[in-house]
Give the backbone structure.
Amino acid sequence: MINIYCDGGCASNQTKENIGGWGTVLVYGKHVKELNGGANGWKNSKKEPVENRELWQELLDLVARQPKVVFFKVKGHLDIEDEKAIKKWHQKFINDYNVNIPYQDYLQAVKYNNRADSLANMAIDELR
């Protein structure tokens, strides 16, 4: 099974200097690969395009060719040192998705999600 953790972000949102970035962490067994990039020239917050239609279509085509693909949203920006908050969000994840993910696996997912956020911010910094 391949797990993919991704996040995106914007700097100077709502301005002409708006810069977008994305980050992703791919995990397959003990193999980890990190990728990131910038949404150079993309728009929105009502200056339109950015719906990423072609990317979503490509993703859906790829998903259709796979035997099983499941998407989960992991709460982002959690402090991994705040065990009380992590446990709260872990329980919410279990309740929302009806998936009994062990606490340590959820904690690892939060760590990868936080790393994807950092990679997105690095891409934004590179575009500045």
In short: The first strand starts at residue 2 and ends at 11. The chain has three helices and three strands. The radius of gyration is 16 Å. The first helix runs from residue 53 to 64.
